[in-house]
Amino acid sequence: MNIYVLVKRTFDTEEKIVVTGGVIQEDGAEFIINPYDEYAIEEAIQVRDAQGGEVTVVTIGGEDAEKQLRTALAMGADKAVLINTEDDLDELDQFSAAYILAEYLKDKDADLILGGNVAIDGGSGQVGPRVAELLGMNYVTTITKLEIDGKTAKIVRDVEGDSEVLEAELPLLVTAQQGLNEPRYPSLPGIMKAKKKPLETLELDDLDIDEDDVEVKTTTVEIYLPPQKAAGRVLEGDLSDQVKELVNLLHSEAKVV
Amino acid sequence: MSKKVLVLGEVREGSLRNVSFEAIAAAKKVSGNGEVVGVLIGDAVANLAGELIKYGADRVVTVEHPHLKQYTSDGFSQAFMAVADQEQPEAIVFGHTALGKDLSPKLASKLQSGLVSDVTDIEGADASALFIRPIYSGKAFEKVQVKEGLVFVTVRPNNIAPLAKDESRTGDISSISVDITNLRTIIKEVVRKSTEGVDLSEAKVVVAGGRGVKSEEGFEPLKELANVLGGAIGASRGACDADYCDYSLQIGQTGKVVTPDLYIAAGISGAIQHLAGMSNSKVIVAINKDPEASIFKVADYGIVGDLFEVIPMLTEEFKKLLVNA
């Protein structure tokens, strides 16, 4: 089984976002593998262990992303690929990211491609389905269960709280939803082994991609923080009076009930 | 410059979802003085076309086929592409729902266009229109401009107000017949889990519980309150990790991002990862035993107390209020 996992390096969920001069400050911030991509890596490893084959993790980014790739290797992935666009591209959007990944994947004969259903930074959730479409591959998003039986994938997918039970043939791209599995922590031997596993770096030239091919369709013109909420009112007095006052406030002042 | 805009009317259990009317309002804004064309896809959906027009669509194109009874990305993309080929739109607006999220990137890829997902507001109307969307799950926002090609956006439920329903509006309703073939995904079964039937992402009221609910049964009083208010149940990561409830209820940076009119946080301390998922709610009520809990910093109204005392009292008070209303 030839398995690929699309991963993204993101801010740690515990990080506060600081914007200076319209740019998000990265200095001193902790970076992690996008949590949804961690589910994808874990699932890929489990499928490989059950079915045999190889897991390759792929990311687009700068040199810094090597750290997250090493973490994925330490979890148990076999190979890692960094598509380094740092020198070639000033900006990426979902169109260009998907194009680059699809160009990389098009001759790899992948049986299964996994990714997170969304990245917690940009939050668009587009790249997985876009890559599948560019490869002419079927896809299933927000999966919470995956069983591979020969060439058939038996899948449960989360649809706004409902569960769809479905079947699809490989090759297939799936995106992971929370609940799919419990991602493992890298073990110490895993971390040692990861240092020796292959990590290949490619640039756009290596993929025969012209900068014009990946010109963005959309661009961010401004980033800002939401207005700070003024501190609210903590009610006082007898509990039953507080409850009455609250209902009254929600009805008459806030007008939401 | 006025644009022709396609809007997908999303049907669930025989009715149009509210977000589709919100999408029409967004489409009106994007179109300038252009035309807003509603698109309905399903096995028997044409009867809903009038509703789209009353909410602001100028006309409606329907695609009906037995294979479109259930959503699949293959089936719906074939249907939508047939409409796009016929109409040659300059813009497309979907709701940012499970269906919208699944289908829109495939279509954007087919149409070789950008796609601005999860839009909460729109500034301006013409080529310079800016689409506002949350990033880092609402810890920050960005304004996005479409540089080239089709303007394709999905709008987050509950953020863009729908136009007032106008019973007198009329418009052309036409159909396209499409051969829907080669569906690669077979849906065996749909298991409905959201018991109270109110979808978390579209709910006007969300009652959410955290570690403070202490057990699965601890969610019962919250459910009663949600029922009285016609709201949905949500949860913090702490409550989900502790197995008090299903992960599909989780609100936060991992999990769902919600923006209801009223968010009631019960026994939730307010970790930054939870705040990212709910702090843009219109009105926030916090109920927590710990007066130092950070949830009080984002709450409009707070009660320091035991949720198992406060929530049932609240339920009773709301019952009284709603009976008298």
UniProtKB/TrEMBL annotation, chain A:
Residues 21-211 form the Electron transfer flavoprotein alpha/beta-subunit N-terminal domain. InterPro entries: ET-Flavoprotein_bsu_CS (IPR000049), ETF_a/b_N (IPR014730), ETF_b (IPR012255), ETF_beta_N (IPR033948), Rossmann-like_a/b/a_fold (IPR014729). Keywords: Electron transport, Transport. Gene3D superfamilies: HUPs. It comes from the Bacteria. The keyword Electron transport applies. Its cofactor is AMP. Pfam families: ETF (PF01012). CDD domains: ETF_beta. Belongs to the ETF beta-subunit/FixA family. This is Electron transfer flavoprotein subunit beta. It comes from Viridibacillus soli.
From TrEMBL, chain B:
Transmembrane segments: none annotated. Residues 5-195 form the Electron transfer flavoprotein alpha/beta-subunit N-terminal domain. InterPro entries: DHS-like_NAD/FAD-binding_dom (IPR029035), ETF_a/b_N (IPR014730), ETF_a/FixB (IPR001308), ETF_alpha_N (IPR033947), ETF_asu_C (IPR014731), ETF_asu_C_CS (IPR018206), Rossmann-like_a/b/a_fold (IPR014729). It comes from the Bacteria. It holds the Pfam family ETF_alpha. SUPFAM superfamilies: Adenine nucleotide alpha hydrolases-like (SSF52402), DHS-like NAD/FAD-binding domain (SSF52467). Belongs to the ETF alpha-subunit/FixB family. This is Electron transfer flavoprotein subunit alpha/FixB family protein. It comes from Viridibacillus soli.
